[in-house]
Amino acid sequence: MPEFIIDIEYHPKKGNEAVVGWGEVLIATQEIILARDLCLKTIKNLVAIPTTGKYTIDPHSGQRDTIPWVTKYIYQKGEPDNWATIHLWDDTSNEHTGSVWLNMTWLGE
Question: What is the tally of structural domains in the chain?
């Protein structure tokens, strides 16, 4: 289960369903982010960037994690109660092991 630190949620216009938020998440590759984890009814977009200076220890090697490449997949985009998965890739295009902190911005309803 990802660990979220939600810094802010912004509702641009009263009565409008749009919600913009940002924060940090500690996540491992292929973990699921549910719309309700982000206090949303539906996820429309996510932007995730690795946080420099924050890392965890790789459970397999005991070494500090490298900064991975991030890809995301949003399933049933715009549908109620949807979800997204985050995939982390190392510099050799293999799935990243361990967890990393990501700065994340999201848009939804």
Answer: 1
The CATH number that applies at residue 54 is: 2.60.40.3940
For residue 9, give every residue at least 6 positions away whose Cβ sits within 8 Å of its Cβ, in sequence order, or none: 19, 20, 21, 39
In which domain, by residue range, is 31 found? 3-108
Query: For the chain, what is the HEC assignment?
Result: CCEEEEEEEECCCCCCCCEEEEEEEEEECCEEEEHHHHCCCCEEEEEEEECCCCCCECCCCCCECCCCEEEEEEECCCCCCCEEEEEEECCCCCECCCEEEEEEEEEEC
Per-residue pLDDT of the chain (109 residues; tens, 9 = 90+): 677 777 777 777 776 778 888 988 888 888 999 998 888 899 999 999 887 655 555 566 656 556 778 899 999 988 899 999 999 887 777 887 778 888 899 999 8
Spatial distance between the Cα atoms of 73 and 45, rounded to a whole number of angstroms: 10
